[in-house]
Amino acid sequence: MLKIYAIAHEDSDRHEAARMLLRWKYEELWQQPMPEIVIGERGKPTFASGSARFSISHTKGASFCALCDGEIGIDVERIRSVSAAVAQRTLSRDEWEQYSAAENPSVEFLKIWTLKEAYVKLTGEGLHGDLRKIAFDFSQPRPRLIERPDLQFWCRQIGEFVLAACADTWHRPEVYMEEVT
């Protein structure tokens, strides 16, 4: 199971909105209070008990949370212009070719960027070092991380956002946009 929830919000406290959404959806799915969140291995937040795993991400205008029965990492970015200089410092040679050939290079960059960020959120490693070494192969229907072909990736443009997920087992993500009244 992989369920991803999103909620639109004003830009006040994105992180708090993501945590509220996580609590709301956890309690709705499992019909019990959400366990305490603790900092696990490598600084990755995790539930103190139970088998469920989660990841949160936020950007201007929306917060997202994922609940999964395996390890998960998600990232979201609001679509915006990205300079070629930033892309060149971040993308592997094959990714750069994909970016350069894209109809909309900024959206293509954000797809690759969110995949990289979803991966480091799954592992808890964080973004550091030469990001060109986190390299994807796009020759298959789903992106594949060259150094970790065992992981599963998913990436979509949803309205004005690019959303990516990385999981240790394949799940077809169910994505829900929640409305708060």
Structure notes:
This protein is an alpha+beta fold and 181 residues long. The protein has a single domain (2-178), classed as Ribosomal Protein L22, Chain A, CATH 3.90.470.20. Helix content is 29%, strand content 31%. It has helices at residues 14-30, 84-90, 93-101, 105-123; strands at 2-8, 37-39, 45-47, 53-59, 62-68, 72-78, 136-137, 144-145, 152-158, 161-167, 174-178. Helix 3 runs antiparallel to helix 4 (105-123). The mean pLDDT is 93.
Tags for this entry?
four-stranded mixed sheet, 4 helices, 181 residues, alpha+beta, globular, 11 strands, Ribosomal Protein L22, Chain A
Brief overview:
With 181 residues, the chain is α+β, with helices and mostly antiparallel strands. Helix content is 29%, strand content 31%.
Order of helices and strands: EHEEEEEHHHEEEEE
Look at the structure and give the mean pLDDT.
93
Our Rg estimate from Cα atoms comes to 16 Å
Q: How many domains, as an integer?
A: 1
Query: Which stretches are poorly predicted, pLDDT < 50 over at least 5 residues?
Result: none
Describe the largest sheet: 4 strands, mixed
Estimated share of beta-strand residues: 25-35%
At CATH level 2, the architecture is: Alpha-Beta Complex
> What is the helix content?
25-40%
CATH uppermost class: Alpha Beta
* Sheet with most strands: strand arrangement: 4-5-1-11
CATH topology: Ribosomal Protein L22, Chain A
Compute the separation of the termini in Å.
27 Å
Task: Supply the number of helical segments.
Answer: 4
Strand runs, count: 11
Q: What general outline do the C-alpha atoms trace?
A: globular
